[in-house]
Amino acid sequence: MRISLLFAIILSATNGILCQNASGYEVPVKVETIYHFNSSVSLEKLAIRKSGEAIVGFDNSPNLYQVDPDLINGSVRHIHTFEGYSVVHGILEVEDDQFYVAASNLSVWTHIDVLGSPSIFHVNMTGFPEHPARVREVVHFPNARILNGMEVISKEEGLIYVGDSALGVINILNVNTGHHYMAINNSYTTIYPLDSGNGVYGIHLFQPQNDSTKYLYLSNFQQGIIARVPIHPSSGLPVGEPKVVVSNLTTVAEFALDKEGNIFAALLSLNQFVRVDHKTKEVLVLAGGPDIDTYTKAISVAFGRTESDKGKLYAVTIGGFTALHNVGAGLFRLDTEDMAVV
């Protein structure tokens, strides 16, 4: 795999998008291109290790890689290939360096998935890269289609959420026992009409300050919304009705929340990374635009975790693998320190 390293400051413009009663407008930020992959790579998911490295999952092969954002000469390391699968669409850290990865069978060309193909794997990265990652299968999902967004409910109990974007439901999995069941299925997780794309995509827990209620926030790719549902803090089951937080976010994929509840999201078809204010719902376009191919098919975001990366937003793009104009997938770092409370 040939990888080139670019550093650039990109000031992006856009025509703006509508968000409820507020118009989106541009507030371009400094952006570093950490790694620009060649045209054979299509990225999908992103997670950040406590030590600062980025973990990326591929959308056109069953590969998991690590990227060190601080090494100038390039440090991209292969972690694991999930034999018998075609994509990696979910990455979640439960304990330090204990990752859980969702692998499925899906054609990147036709987007046709294989019912009953997905599995969740435990990837122990303690000591990586000096020591190889230890990988074992946790559970096979015989009734799932595309396992995607994931979130921790309880580290102590080993409970996590696992979204199925093709079925439009959210499951709960005990990673210690492999027991799993469908937990959330409502009008904001699902797909209309059925079999017409992706429903629930990203899922994240959030508890507002001075609020005793914990919420599960979720993005719905097809509906272009981010909604939330109050949940029981121990079981993860819903305890109230879901509510739309923000709408008209065209093809919203993954997102991240800061401590105030501001939303940082990737809008795939608009090639944009945006911020949604938790109070006003104003949309700020941080980078990209429909006519800017630098961020072709923006897909995933995650905040940095080291002191030097505090407030920085890491972001990945698919890169247009199936498009006539394939610019290659990319890993970027957005300077959002003045816009995020982390």
Give a nutshell description of this structure.
With 342 residues, the protein is mostly beta strands.
Question: What key attributes describe this structure?
Answer:
disordered N terminus, 342 residues, Neuraminidase, mainly beta
Gyration radius (Cα, Å) is: 18 Å
Shape: globular
Mean pLDDT: 90
- The SSE order reads EEEEEEEEEEEEEEEEEEEEEEEEEEEE
User: In CATH terms, what is the fold-level topology?
Assistant: Neuraminidase
Largest sheet: 5 strands, antiparallel
Strand order of the largest sheet: 1-5-28-27-26
| Distance between the amino and carboxyl termini | 35 Å
Q: Please tell me the total number of domains.
A: 1
Structural class: mainly beta
Keywords: Signal
Organism: Gymnopus androsaceus JB14
Signal peptide: 1-19
Protein name: Calcium-dependent phosphotriesterase
Chart the SSEs and their pairings.
Blueprint: E1 3-4, E2 18-19, E3 22-23, E4 25-26, E5 31-37, E6 43-48, E7 54-58, E8 63-67, E9 76-81, E10 87-95, E11 98-104, E12 119-124, E13 134-140, E14 147-154, E15 159-164, E16 169-174, E17 180-184, E18 200-206, E19 214-220, E20 225-231, E21 243-246, E22 252-257, E23 263-267, E24 272-276, E25 283-288, E26 298-303, E27 312-317, E28 330-335
Parallel strand pairs: 4-25
Antiparallel strand pairs: 1-5, 2-3, 5-28, 6-7, 7-8, 8-9, 10-11, 11-12, 12-13, 14-15, 15-16, 16-17, 18-19, 19-20, 20-21, 22-23, 23-24, 24-25, 26-27, 27-28
Protein name: Calcium-dependent phosphotriesterase
Signal peptide: 1-19
Organism: Gymnopus androsaceus JB14
